[in-house]
Specification:
Structural class: alpha/beta
Helix content: 40-55%
Number of helices: 40
Strand order of the largest sheet: 13-14-12-15-16-11-17
Radius of gyration: 32 Å
Largest sheet: 7 strands, parallel
Shape: globular
Number of strands: 24
Bound molecules: iron/sulfur cluster
Strand content: 5-15%
């Protein structure tokens, strides 16, 4: 990004704004204008002018709405102000309020070292006390962090507006009392607290004496709480106020202008109506995005020719991310700096990962911003995994990640052996590591790696309860060697990664400062809460890192300017609140709500100098893209998914391998200092990889017209003259040549290439019965959804703790099973059916270890309601259960299929119906090309029990609805085809991840999965 800053004042602004500001002496000046009319430059001109008149520029307080704008103004002023001056006074409203409070903490009733916290810290605080919160009427559904995040939005909105929060009032009161008890201040509260403080006129005059001149950017965001602060300063002797106002970018709704005029009733006014760097097309598109009228016709006229708008309709989010990465690569190749390009998505938490992944495939570093991007960085996730493993050795996923990643890097095969030991002997993973040292199953090299891991683990575990979190985290980062590993890995994203680790250490420092007695365990809980809540503490870098493409939340574009912006993922339905409920409501200005979306898209359209791309995947017709298209008459470009990612030519493969070779050399080098049993093996492998890199470099530069095959053979001949026999054996075993020569490149081949270099076969750990692969309907669905998830769950068998949703599902299944078992045994339920269901539910609830948390009690309420609906349906049903929990097993090809059907009903005509109970989300029967589960059940019933079910249904117990899925003539063929396809994938060990926002968001293996990181 560059704020308008990277160009000189003279070049960037034709001048009317600056001239008018120069003519302005004291008093109040209000500048109106749309984007691109030179308002920001005019405001900075005011600061320069004050400096020219001999007054210290630090006495001008420049206030912006967003941290990004404030940072951009500061950067630019530092360039333009000749100095000397004390320090620049550039703030957000909350920053100014904090600065005032730091001068007068006692008068505000605060301790001298009060701490200010943002949304992330408040979310962690609420999550730690979730059972004490008044959430009985909010739908928690096993995801308290998600709900609390939505509620915080409601709390913040109420505070901005100066309202009591209505249905949230009780929660707000508790939220505030928790903060007060911890001696913490909510950043959003600062303007309100200062407004109260400045009721003391002498204190208000003290502030205006320090800052006699105010310059206010983004006045459109003057919400009531901020206005309260301004209203105290207005009568306290300000010499001048210059403010700029653009109603088309008001992120907190209307009313800001009125609030300003209440403080300064008769300002001089001036309209900047010429957008001198904006094309007509861009303004037309932005106006269409905004709908009716924030800027009347005539008040915002295009005077430039900068900027086109393009529209995409890609086939899928993956195709969209690939297309953006392709264009970004071309832009960088043409000389544009990566930070001058931006990619924005409505929700970076769920949509950013795919974009960052597509950029990474082309070797383009990215910096995700907003949400919890920091917690998706591999080394940050490694550190969190270590902290989790150290504070809870039963956290199998955390221990697994620590074992898989540097410095241990246990191979998949050995990891599978470990999880097997853990399961067979019922040991946690750390104890399994210890037991594995005695196990003949483990190869000596693996034992050595595990021993090194345990040494590190024990040393770190010894200090968990004695060190402060900040000192502990810094030491852990050093001990594990994350910094060292990355420092040498001279890849473009190295700086970003190192910054991520530093940021984590800073978060630990802030945490320890807020509570010097807090333990490492508490800090780990805090990090887990932030990760689950998808929020990062404030204080990270606001401006993008040099050399990295920012991937941002769409609502974070305000205050920045880029050369090109791609706005992706616009198919996401705006206005959908994830956890609707009291107090969250349907406010159109809710982040992601329709008004916010309009403003954010319009802001994107006016924040790029050269081009903006608006993209929506699939068939969606989202607002406001459809309106923009209609207004501008644009055509949409269609983008299909590239099966193999970036252009898989030799140069691309060279780029991919380059990083691999550098990292391998660093790791192998460290082994030379502390030789292990497999050091010679690793050294030969590293040298062989280097020779392959040479081969690729040679092939990429050849221009002799020889065929690929001839060229490879020639280079191989030369390499054979210098490689040792061991290295030659490595080269022979490599799949690089077949990969380069393949004309029919299959999906996953690149992954296979990478895997075959480092991983021995997992064949012995594939789930089998005899020689046959063992598959169930869940396995088929899991593999088709994401093969890597299947690997974690079924091949490694990484244990996952049962969630409340899972326990609840088991309870409901058990209740219904017992109810109908009694019926099958001859019990007549006609008189006491509902009472029996309720009694079974209550008994199961007691025995199921459920507690009294709001979340669990809500599940109980839903279960009771579900039992009533179930009984109503049962009473009127003509069918009766014929079998319950009946198993089937049969073969398809060399695969062994098994399953258990919840219930099989038979109607009076003797027809059978297979029924599967569901207590979670609705099944999308069309995914994977048609319903598999019920088709498999019907086939199983036919093959194993010899009955021919006429129907198959999903019974959504909580909704009291049974949904029949009609059979189709090709069911058998489809199931067989699917089984063979999945079987081939599993046997071929094709476990390539298929990340997608919908699936990864709920995946139990996010912590372990490399595809879930940025
Ligand atoms: S996080 Fe996503 S990509 Fe990774 S295993 Fe889970 S579903 Fe697959």
């Amino acid at each position: 990004m560059s704020d308008p800053s990277t160009r000189s004042v003279a070049e960037s602004d034709p001048g009317p704004g600056r001239e008018r500001v120069r003519r302005h002496g004291s008093g109040v000046l209000l500048i109106r204008g749309g984007a691109g009319t030179g308002k920001s430059t005019a405001l900075r001109e005011r600061v320069l002018q004050v400096g020219e008149k001999g007054l210290d520029p630090s006495r001008v307080a420049l206030i912006a709405s967003t941290g990004r704008s404030a940072a951009a103004h500061r950067l630019r002023l530092e360039e333009d102000l000749p100095g000397p001056y004390e320090s620049l006074s550039v703030f957000t409203w909350e920053g100014l309020a904090e600065e005032i409070l730091r001068h007068r903490p006692v008068e505000a009733g605060l301790g001298p070292t009060f701490e200010v916290v943002g949304a992330a810290e408040r979310l962690a605080m609420l999550l730690a006390r979730v059972d004490e919160l008044p959430l009985r009427n909010h739908e928690i559904r096993g995801n308290p962090a998600g709900l609390l995040r939505e509620l915080l939005v409601g709390i913040d909105r109420a505070k901005r507006q100066g309202e009591d929060g209505g249905e949230l009032a009780e929660l707000i009161e508790l939220h505030d009392s928790l903060l007060a008890a911890a001696d913490l201040l909510d950043r959003n509260d600062l303007p309100r607290i200062v407004a109260r403080l400045l009721e003391d006129k002498a204190l208000a005059e003290e502030v205006t004496a320090r800052y006699p001149h105010l310059v206010i950017d983004e006045l459109e965001d003057l919400h009531p709480a901020r206005a309260g602060l301004l209203h105290r300063l207005a009568p306290a002797g300000l010499e001048s106020v210059v403010a700029s106002f653009d109603p088309s970018r008001a992120i907190y709704g209307p009313g800001a202008e009125q609030r300003f005029l209440e403080a300064f009733p008769e300002p001089d006014e001036f309209v900047l109506d010429e957008a001198w760097r904006m094309s007509d097309l861009r303004i037309k598109a932005a106006r269409a995005a905004l709908g009716s009228g924030p800027l009347p016709e005539g008040d915002w006229e295009a005077k430039g020719d900068e900027g086109s708008v393009r529209y995409w309709r890609p086939a899928s989010p993956r195709a969209e991310a690939q297309a953006a990465a392709r264009e970004v690569e071309l832009q960088i190749a043409s000389g544009i700096a990566p930070e001058e390009l931006a990619i924005a998505v409505p929700d970076v938490n769920s949509q950013g990962g795919g974009v960052v992944g597509a950029l990474a495939e082309r070797g383009i570093p990215a910096r995700p911003g907003g949400g919890a991007a920091l917690f998706r960085q591999p080394e940050v996730r490694d550190t969190i995994a270590w902290l989790r493993a150290l504070t809870d050795p039963t956290d199998a996923r955390a221990v697994t990640r620590a074992l898989m990643r540097p410095p241990t890097e246990l191979r998949s095969l050995d990891l599978a052996k470990l999880t097997q030991i853990s399961k067979r002997r019922k040991l946690d993973m750390i104890s399994a590591c210890e037991a594995s040292l005695e196990s003949p199953q483990m190869a000596p090299e693996a034992r050595q790696r595990i021993e090194a891991f345990l040494t590190l683990y024990r040393a770190a575990a010894g200090a968990v309860d004695t060190r402060r979190p900040d000192a502990y985290v810094r030491r852990l980062i050093e001990r594990i060697g994350f910094r060292r590993q990355r420092l040498f890995a001279a890849r473009p994203e190295t700086a970003e990664r190192l910054l991520g680790l530093s940021r984590l250490a800073e978060i630990a420092t802030d945490f320890s400062r807020r509570d010097p007695n807090a333990s490492v365990r508490e800090f780990t809980g805090f990090l887990i809460a932030l990760t689950e809540g998808g929020l990062e503490p404030a204080g990270g870098p606001v401006l993008p890192g040099v050399g990295a493409v920012p991937v941002l939340n769409l609502d974070m574009l305000k205050g920045g300017e880029w050369t090109r912006i791609w706005v992706l993922g616009l198919e996401r339905p705006f206005g959908t609140i994830r956890t609707p409920g009291p107090g969250i409501g349907d406010d159109p200005t809710h982040p992601g709500g329709p008004e916010s979306a309009r403003i954010a898209v319009a802001t994107a359209l006016t924040s790029a100098r050269e081009e903006v791309v608006l993209s929506r995947a699939g068939d969606a017709e989202p607002d406001p893209v459809a309106a923009i298209l209609e207004a501008t008459g644009g055509l949409e470009e269609v983008h299909e998914e590239e099966l193999f990612g970036p252009d898989e030519d030799v140069a691309a493969t060279y780029r991919t391998m380059l990083g691999e070779v550098i990292e391998a050399s660093w790791k192998t080098g460290s082994e030379l200092n502390e030789p292990r049993l497999d050091t010679a093996f690793d050294v030969n492998r590293a040298v062989a990889r280097y020779l392959e890199l040479l081969k690729l470099a040679a092939l990429a530069q050849r221009d002799d017209g020889a065929s690929d095959e001839e060229a490879i053979e020639a280079v191989n001949g030369l390499l054979a003259q210098i490689a040792t026999p061991e290295q030659l054996a490595e080269l022979d075993a490599s799949t690089l040549d077949p990969y380069l020569l393949a004309t029919e490149r299959e999906r996953g081949m690149r992954q296979g290439l990478a895997d075959s270099r480092v991983e021995p076969s997992l064949d012995a750990f594939l789930p089998r019965r005899g020689d046959d692969l063992r598959l169930s309907a869940t396995d088929l669905d899991m593999y088709l959804t994401c093969p890597l998830k299947y690997k974690f769950a079924r091949v490694f068998g990484i244990p996952t703790p049962p969630t409340v949703n899972m326990r609840f599902g088991i309870l409901i299944h058990n209740v219904l099973q017992r109810f109908h078992e009694a019926e099958l045994a001859g019990k007549d339920h006609s008189e006491d059916g509902l009472a029996t269901l309720m009694a079974l539910l209550d008994e199961g609830w007691r025995r199921g270890g459920f507690g009294n948390s709001n979340d669990e009690l809500q599940f109980l309420d839903r279960a009771r309601e579900a039992m009533r609906a179930y009984w109503r349906n049962e009473k009127s049903s003509k069918s009766k259960p014929a079998f319950l929990e009946r198993q089937f097993e049969f073969r398809i090809g060399s695969h062994f299929l098994r399953g258990r059907v919840d219930r099989v009903d038979q109607d009076p005509e003797g027809n059978f119906e297979v029924i599967d109970y569901k207590t979670g989300q609705r099944v999308d029967s069309s995914r994977h090309g048609g319903d598999i589960q019920l088709a498999l059940y019907r086939l199983g019933a036919r093959e194993a029990w010899g009955i021919e079910p006429a129907a198959g249904s999903y019974y959504y117990v909580l909704e009291g609805e049974k949904v029949e899925v009609e059979s189709s003539p090709d069911d058998r063929e489809r199931v067989e085809r699917t089984v063979l396809e999945v079987g081939e994938g599993v046997l071929g060990q094709d476990f390539e991840p298929r990340p997608s926002p919908a699936v990864c968001g709920w995946c139990d293996f996010k912590l372990v999965c490399p595809a879930a990181e940025a």
